[in-house]
Amino acid sequence: MSDASDQGEPSDLSELLARHPLPSPDGGKDAKGDLMLVGGAPSCPGAVLLAGRAALRAGSGRVQLVVHPDVATAIAVALPEALVLGWDPADALPEAVVSRLARAAAVVVGPGMGEEAQAAARAVGHHVEGILVVDAQAIGCLTDLVSNHKGALVAAPNPKEAADLLGCDGDPTDAVSPLARDLADLLGGPAVVRGTTTVLDDGTGDQWAERERTPGLGTPGSGDVLMGALGAMLARGLDPLAALAWAIAAHARAGRLLSEHTPVGFLASEVADALPRALRSLSEEAEPSSGG
């Protein structure tokens, strides 16, 4: 692990948002990018459902969900705004999925998946020409994907997931900044480690932090909402650094807005539904002052 002793404190994430404004919301769905989310195992179909809901709330143009056939109908009914395709990771990828993977601006793989996540990530990554976001148990195969994936790879693990991937000893919750730096080195680009303080490393030595402490965000499905927001930012055309910054900030701000009335006990679906207000609030703050 990198030595953090000679590294300064990460800058505030708001500095990065001001330098990378959100794309214009004008235009139809074609102008806002295709996002594909691969997850939805029968044991945890809600994860990809939350990610899809968050992606739509964050402004993605088209959201396509690839889920296990056993839950495809239920998910299609629960999220009628999305296209839902069935795939059992034990089988080869259907051609309908392969063709859409190649056209997607961004693909997120892993939400709600268990032991099959790594095999699914490898199968999907072979066909992705855009940006591939690797989440949850799929993170375990990142090293393999770095060697084989043609496009950019993005990940935002928690400290334990990052430490396990990187083979680090000690308490990972005390080493978020060096973990983020080592993960960025592995990926060859921006990476995030999500802890009490979430740290974004740009891959060249600069870091930014989201220090908002919102206990209510520690709720089941909260990370899936973040992944959906991240996918939406990428699909809308932001580069990985800016997309990570906006997704992290919007997720934190949504939690803060909800906590004004409900300090703890709000649901991950409510975090997703608060994303439009969060993005508007952050955009207004990031705009240059017009004062004299």
Task: Summarize, please.
This protein has helices at residues 13-19, 46-57, 69-78, 95-103, 117-125, 142-148, 159-166, 176-187, 222-235, 240-259, 268-273, 275-286; strands at 11-12, 34-38, 62-67, 83-86, 106-109, 131-134, 153-155, 191-193, 198-201, 207-210. The protein is α/β, with parallel strands linked by helices and 292 residues long. The strands form two sheets. Strands 4-3-2-5-6-7 form a six-stranded parallel sheet, with helices on both faces. Strands 1-10-9-8 form a four-stranded mixed sheet, with helices on both faces.
How are the SSEs placed, and which strands pair?
Blueprint: E1 11-12, H1 13-19, E2 34-38, H2 46-57, E3 62-67, H3 69-78, E4 83-86, H4 95-103, E5 106-109, H5 117-125, E6 131-134, H6 142-148, E7 153-155, H7 159-166, H8 176-187, E8 191-193, E9 198-201, E10 207-210, H9 222-235, H10 240-259, H11 268-273, H12 275-286
Parallel strand pairs: 1-10, 2-3, 2-5, 3-4, 5-6, 6-7
Antiparallel strand pairs: 8-9, 9-10
Helix pairs in contact: 1-10, 1-12, 2-9, 7-8, 9-10, 10-12
Overview of the structural elements:
With 292 residues, this protein is of the alpha/beta class. Helices cover 43% and strands 13% of the residues. The protein has helices at 13-19, 46-57, 69-78, 95-103, 117-125, 142-148, 159-166, 176-187, 222-235, 240-259, 268-273, 275-286; strands spanning 11-12, 34-38, 62-67, 83-86, 106-109, 131-134, 153-155, 191-193, 198-201, 207-210. The strands form two sheets. Strands 4-3-2-5-6-7 form a six-stranded parallel beta sheet, sandwiched between helices. A four-stranded mixed beta sheet has the order 1-10-9-8, sandwiched between helices. Helix 7 (159-166) packs across helix 8 (176-187) and helix 10 crosses helix 12. The longest helix is centred in the C-terminal third of the chain and has 20 residues, at 240-259. The chain is globular, with a radius of gyration of 18 Å. The N and C termini lie far apart (47 Å). Residues 2-6 have low confidence and may be disordered.
